Amino acid sequence: MSTASFTLTDEMREQAIGVESAPTTTDVEKGHIARFAEAIGDDNPAYTEGTPETGGIVAPPTFLRAMRAVRPELPFEIPFTRLLDGGSDWEYFEHVRPGDVITAVGRVEDIRERTGSIGQMLITTIKVTYRNQTGAIVATQTSTSIRH
Amino acid sequence: MGQQIYFEDVSEGMELPMEVREPTTRQLVQYAGASGDFYEIHYDKPYAESIGLPGIIIHGALKNAMLGSYVTGWAGPASTLRRLTCQYRGMDFPGEPITAKGHVARVYQEGEQNLVDCTIWLENPQGQQTTPGTATVVLPSRG
Predict the structure, then answer these.
(1) Residues B24-39: pLDDT tens digits?
(2) B78 lies in which domain range?
(3) What is the CA radius of gyration of chain A?
(4) Is the ipTM of this complex over 0.90?
(5) Is residue B3 part of a domain?
(6) Counted domains in chain B
(7) Taking Cα atoms as reference points, which of B83, B35, B84, B85 lies closest to residue B59?
(8) What is the pLDDT of residue A83?
(9) How far B25 CA lies from chain A's nearest CA (Å)?
(10) Which of chain A's residues have a Cβ under 8 Å away from the Cβ of B27?
(11) Does the residue B44 lie in any domain?
(12) How many domains is chain A built from?
């Protein structure tokens, strides 16, 4: 358990909210989609050979996790070393297909401090926006993480 | 793959057929490789225990993927997933059965689209909802 004392001031919140990560750009490969589908135990043919409905191979809904978006860096030091995933909220706009070039940028949407059963916690909400090579937003993922 | 579900076939309160999965450590390693998430708590038991965990735990993101797979499998090939949410409330462990369950929460139209909100979750062998979530899918109409 962390014993460090930490205060999140209004000024620090304002500094943190809106901070963006460096963009990461990844080529989407057919083999990678197939390996991801296998790893999640989904044998939907849309992910390996395509279906009439999808008009070719598409990626499973959470495949974008593999695009390795980087976490935006907070503009101050924090004394917490442990990280827990709190939850996730995906919104989907376009299919992701082999040959797409996906750029991911994370943005700090919110940051809060709370004390709970595991001690003091810092709760951050980060929204990652994924765009394809045409600039279209294919999906967003808003994640909550807990540092303690 | 399940069969196609049509908008006319769903009603609020309708249950989604439950699905049982039993992820193995091998699957967690596969997921680590495919996703690039190599945090040791998902495959290195001594490491997981050294930081106070009861053992290797399943990636939250893999449970998220399992929920996505569950709801898209139910909705069928001509349906589209619009939104998928989940909360990580409890840890799940490889080698234990995980049951995906759900029901239809809301049936509505938005413009030309036929939408269905589902309440979905993963349950551990003790019957606790470790990973509750929601999904919104666009369903085709029988026309």
Answers:
(1) 999 999 999 999 999 9
(2) 12-138
(3) 18
(4) yes
(5) no
(6) 1
(7) B35
(8) 84
(9) 11
(10) 39, 41
(11) yes
(12) 1
